[in-house]
């Protein structure tokens, strides 16, 4: 080898190193597929929640005497259903595990709800129903499209806090000295839905989803009291379901 051939050799080495560096840089910019949709994430979400109280009936229950409902006594009796609705906002945390194009995940969330509705009962009583908060733990099953997009179905157990309050005084001619007006309850049920999520960067994603919830009987007392060891209450017997549409943004730890 002569010194005259060194410039050509040096030039060849520089080109090889430069090409290798460019390849490595490109690999750093493009997140490996195995790193996408894997690991823990946290996020915030907001949307619209609508509750639906159906099959509503007015009932009375006295200790030792059982339940009496007006709907059982009069076939055409209907007190009217309530539909509290409003905004909802909260946060969520989850974990994704990717197997090729399939993503398995688990997600938990808690949300503040502002669902409100007002009704009048028999022309003598006005009452308000509200949805105050909800929480859920849901499994997710997704399919990756184009590395950045994820379509998924989701479902699991859910808890929803609901409340009934009377809006004016009622003279109660009952032997019970301690009368409570209104009621609140945290109902257990199930939610099922679907959504789409898109990775806008290596650590940030946005999502939109729809969820439907079933909570079964959600009986709420209008009046309740105790006297002489007996408990008496007048309440609304009803079934509760919900519809929810919301969007969210999440930060993913590690590779997305």
From TrEMBL:
The keyword Aminoacyl-tRNA synthetase does not apply. GO terms for cellular component: cell outer membrane. The keyword Membrane applies. It is found in: Cell outer membrane. Its main location: membrane. Residues 1-26 form the signal peptide. SUPFAM superfamilies: OMPA-like (SSF56925). It comes from the Bacteria. Residues 15-253 form the Outer membrane protein beta-barrel domain. Keywords: Cell outer membrane, Membrane, Signal. Transmembrane segments: none annotated. Belongs to the Omp25/RopB family. This is Outer membrane protein beta-barrel domain-containing protein. It comes from Aestuariivirga litoralis.
């Amino acid at each position: 080898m002569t010194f005259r051939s060194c410039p050509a050799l040096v030039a060849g080495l520089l080109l090889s190193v430069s090409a290798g560096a460019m390849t490595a840089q490109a690999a750093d910019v493009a997140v490996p597929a195995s790193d996408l949709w894997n690991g823990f994430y946290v996020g915030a979400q907001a949307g619209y929640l609508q509750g639906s109280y159906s099959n509503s009936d007015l009932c009375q229950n006295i200790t030792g005497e059982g339940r009496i409902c007006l709907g059982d006594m009069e076939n055409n009796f209907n007190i009217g259903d309530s539909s509290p609705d409003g905004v909802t906002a909260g946060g969520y945390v989850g974990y994704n595990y990717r197997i090729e194009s399939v993503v398995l995940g688990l997600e938990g969330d808690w949300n503040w709800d502002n669902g409100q509705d007002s009704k009048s009962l028999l022309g003598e009583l006005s009452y308000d129903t509200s949805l105050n908060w909800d929480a859920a733990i849901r499994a997710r099953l997704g399919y990756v499209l184009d590395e950045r997009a994820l379509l998924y179905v989701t479902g699991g157990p859910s808890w929803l806090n609901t409340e009934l309050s009377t809006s004016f005084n009622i003279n109660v001619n009952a032997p019970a000295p301690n009368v409570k007006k209104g009621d609140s309850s945290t109902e257990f049920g199930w939610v099922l839905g679907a959504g789409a999520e898109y990775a806008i960067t290596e650590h940030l994603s946005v999502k939109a989803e729809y969820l439907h919830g079933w909570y079964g009987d959600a009986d709420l007392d209008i009046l309740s009291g105790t006297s002489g060891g007996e408990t008496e209450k007048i309440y609304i017997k009803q079934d509760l379901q919900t519809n929810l549409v919301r969007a969210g943004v999440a930060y993913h730890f590690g590779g997305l």
